[in-house]
């Protein structure tokens, strides 16, 4: 991609209301644009990041037996009334009347929708267990929509739902998903704590959150500095200084960002929405359900909170919009030739071919934060100056070495 053609441009000044690094750098770097409080356009750079994250999530959900689909955002009142949540979620859910006078809501979550689908299509143990997931935008009427992508009114989310006929089977899959989630975050470049938590506004059952230690976080947790154990401070039975129940290390207290959560609903929806299936011996059993969510746009923000410096973002290679930032100094044909070769070899490169100063190009490269900076200049001869975004050191290497580096 030639940067001269990229929509949009970087900004010298951060937004006035930017309180976090992610809000500041994602806006300045041209990744997102605010339409109104809590509602953002994902610009080409930002959308590439979300797609990289989504691809990692898809791979791990598919590996865990999930089947991807897409459910409606518009949802009728009647299925929400079956669970009583049309009233209990009024403050969070966008609710309105359509032109015919029917009351409708925008999807804040999809338990009712998917359970209605399951009860009409699953009748026997032969159909279970089953796990289905989707990636789509959710809508929640947040009172305090601030902090960029950290807390939005419209946001991208992956939610997977699993269905079982026994608690043992549900527990087994629930634990399997905890491990799948760990792989997702590891591949994205984040270290998470698996935190015991309350069910919050969506369920009274127990749940687990996946938290990233960060000063910009809104949650407070008690956690182990050595392993992934943690407890949300709202329900914590342990305190800072106590021994970790997993490895005996001294626990700490800190702020964190929730980047995922999972719930066990058990037979709640079976009872509320009449969802049953027959067992091998012909007995009628409730179809048990659990829910597994990852906020993709919030995950992108969390990555920036963890991976940045005073100059801008430092993207992990797995989720960076491009693998490298090719920079031409004193605009020359050699840089054009290098770019064309890299593209033909399948390299994922952003090429700064703009007619601006070297200082401006370097500042933008640091702000955007691609893993490698490649500089082509007349001083370097047939070599390319390679610098990792995470390092101050650079070296001159040949084109073949650059190709090898980018393919790793």
Structural account:
With 408 residues, the chain is α+β, with helices and mostly antiparallel strands. It folds into two domains: 9-219 and 255-309, Bira Bifunctional Protein, Domain 2 (BirA Bifunctional Protein, domain 2); 322-407, Anticodon-binding domain (Rossmann fold, 3-Layer(aba) Sandwich), CATH 3.40.50. 30% of the residues lie in helices and 29% in strands. It contains eleven helices and 23 strands. The strands form six sheets. It has a five-stranded mixed beta barrel with strand order 9-10-13-11-12. It has a five-stranded mixed beta sheet with strand order 20-19-21-22-23, with helices on both faces. A three-stranded antiparallel beta sheet has the order 4-6-5. Helix 9 links the parallel strand 19 (324-328) and strand 20 (349-352). Helix 1 crosses helix 8, helix 2 runs antiparallel to helix 6 (167-188) and helix 2 crosses helix 8 (296-306). The radius of gyration is 24 Å and the shape is elongated. The model has no long low-confidence stretch (mean pLDDT 95).
Major sheet attributes: 5 strands, mixed, barrel
Rg, rounded, reads 24 Å
SSE class: alpha+beta
Q: Report the CATH topology name of the largest domain.
A: BirA Bifunctional Protein, domain 2
- Content of β-strand: 25-35%
**Got a strand count?**
23
CATH class of the largest domain: Alpha Beta
- Name the CATH superfamily classification of the largest domain: Bira Bifunctional Protein, Domain 2
- Fraction of helical residues: 25-40%
- Please state the overall shape, judged from the principal axes of the Cα atoms: elongated
Whole-number average pLDDT? 95
Give the strand order of the largest sheet, numbering strands 1, 2, ... along the chain. 9-10-13-11-12
Number of domains: 2
